Amino acid sequence: MTNEASKTRAVRGKDFDETYLRGRVIDIGCGPDLIVAHAEPFDLGHGDAQEIAKVRPHLAYDAVCSSHCLEHMRNVPAALTQWWALVRKGGYLVLVVPDEDLFEQGGWPSIFNRDHKATFRIGGKTTWSPVSYDIFALVQSLDGAEIVSCERQDRNYDYTLMKSRLSRRDRCLFLLQRVIKGIFRRIGFAGTFPDKIASKLFASVGTPVDQTANSALAQIQVIARKRD
Q1: Which residues are CB-contacts of 100 (< 8 A; sequence separation ≥ 6)?
Q2: For labelling, which of 36, 79, 130, 211 has a CA lying 20 to 30 Å from the CA of 67?
Q3: DSSP-based three-state secondary structure for 225
């Protein structure tokens, strides 16, 4: 996914930062795209996010934020419990994860990000994914958690391109497209006319599309407050 924090900021209200991101903020799995300029970054170079409560102080942060990191954790509930431990009473957890239907499109293991270890949905007892979590229920189960909001964010997402399940053919086409585009990048054609022609050709035969590589969002945002 490309610059998800920046794309997400565009759909948040003008008062979002003032309401949820004041004071001491930590951004887990931020990469180069911090949620706010004053946030403390925590990424691979700072330690293991799965065990962050061992290296960062408990009850010390006004906001603990993470965008597109939880799906990479080895043990999702355990990691989330560690992240929650850092939130002070009255503080917030601001969490963004991929929506399993919009992003993974009915395919597992993920073809769009091979490091994904979990998928997420909002509610629903049935799911196609063998590694699915109801993110609303998961956050709500945290000790002292009050759900402020939980919403699917799909700005610029084209539902006509979305797959409901990925077939073997879909996977083969996507892999072939990746190989061809990789060749184009190596010879300097990335983003040029041949690359665009290849994209249109693959799209015309129904190749799965990772829309988040461009301007689309395909995610769920959850905000929880820790009771005083």
Answers
A1: 119, 120, 121, 127, 128, 129, 132
A2: 130
A3: strand
Coil/strand/helix, residue 147: strand
Q: Return the structure tokens found at 194.
A: 């041949």
Q: Name the phi and psi angles at 66, rounded to 5.
A: -155, 130
Q: Report the half-sphere exposure of 218 (CA within 13 A, side-chain side).
A: 25
Structure tokens at 132: 């699915």
For residue 1, pLDDT beyond 60: no
User: Partners of 41 in the beta sheet?
Assistant: 27
Q: Mean pLDDT, to the nearest integer, of 135-153?
A: 98
Which of 208, 5, 217, 224 minimizes the C-alpha distance to 99?
A: 217
Question: In DSSP terms, which residues pair with 28 in a beta bridge?
Answer: 42, 66
Distance of alpha carbon 14 from alpha carbon 173, whole angstroms: 41
Q: What is the pLDDT of residue 2?
A: 58
φ/ψ (deg, to 5) at 223: -125, 130
CA atoms within 13 A on the CB side of 184: 17
pLDDT tens sequence across 53-67: 999 999 999 999 999
Whether 195 shows a pLDDT value over 80: the answer reads no
